[in-house]
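Human: I'm a chemist; would you kindly supply sequence and structure tokens for a protein?

Assistant:
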Amino acid sequence: MNKQEALQHFKEHVVQERLEQRLDEVQQIFNQRQAELIADLIANFQHFCQQVSDMQNEGKKADIAFINFSMLRTSILSESYVYLIEAYSNEWYEDLHKCHFTYDVSWLYSCFTLLMTDLKQEYKKYMGVLNEADAEIAALETIPYFHQFIVALLRFAIPDLIDIPSYQSIGKSAKITIRVGEYKDISEQIYAIDDQAAVMESSILQNQDGFAYEDAHNSNLHGLNMERQDMRYSDFTGAQLEAARFKECFLFGIRWYRAVLAGCDFGGSVISDGDFRYADLQNAVFCQASAQHLNHKGKRLPGVMGLHFEYANLDQADLTGIHFFEQAYFTGASMNRTRMNLHDRDKFIFSDEQQKAIQWVEGEQINETAAILLTAE
């Protein structure tokens, strides 16, 4: 076995297996501590915004146009495990007035260090063909699979982050964007606010293609009828969507926070990682929808966050037909005559009041269409 063959075998068999093991551990930590991790993120962001406000009060910082959450490989390798939260004016990286705050993510990247240790032991089995540097490089290539948990956490926490008083009080540009990625490298937008919501509303009503990652907050889309559209990671916060129909659409990671979704039909759509907190979902129908978790060669998005229905109005909604319905949260939700499968009763945490109010149904509707959609994606 030459060096190239050994590396290929090492990555395909050893690295992949050990990576999956460590990501399973991360997912378990993430599920058990999700509320705590969100609260910690909010607390860190609050301190960061106070720092921005102090600089602005001293005349040392202009209105903020960009906020970046940046992963630092050097921090991970040195085992300090922090991300940078940075604030920039419209000049972005040319803004010379630095404003940054460190955010501890050791709960996540300590598992990466364990993976690194695993690989530094395993390479020795290749009888001198591989060396320690090969193991380190292979480990570094897995960092994006750990980073995806931070992306998921940030996307979900955005409504809470932008609602805190210290964020509301800072001076902001007409358009502000929040991004997450590697330090001064590739990053992705997780939030943006400007005057484009009306444009988004018009394009959706005209049934044009290409709605992924769009901002449609507070849009009036009553009775919208969509079929097989890709709308992933769009923001429908506060949108009016009564009686809308979503047929076999990609809806994963969408922010439905405080949206009016009464009578909506999500039939056959992929709704993984949907944020339905505080939404009005009276009489909504989820038959044949899919909440499937992606788990393919280290990729866990969508599916990291599960479905969040905290404080939503689910009265008379039908949740009996959701496929891969394994992770969901119902704290404070109104569930009068909400239809749910009896076998889901012990999967989730319900209050005594919710247990009595839910209409428990025996049997399960089988959904294959949404599962095929997600697999194909």
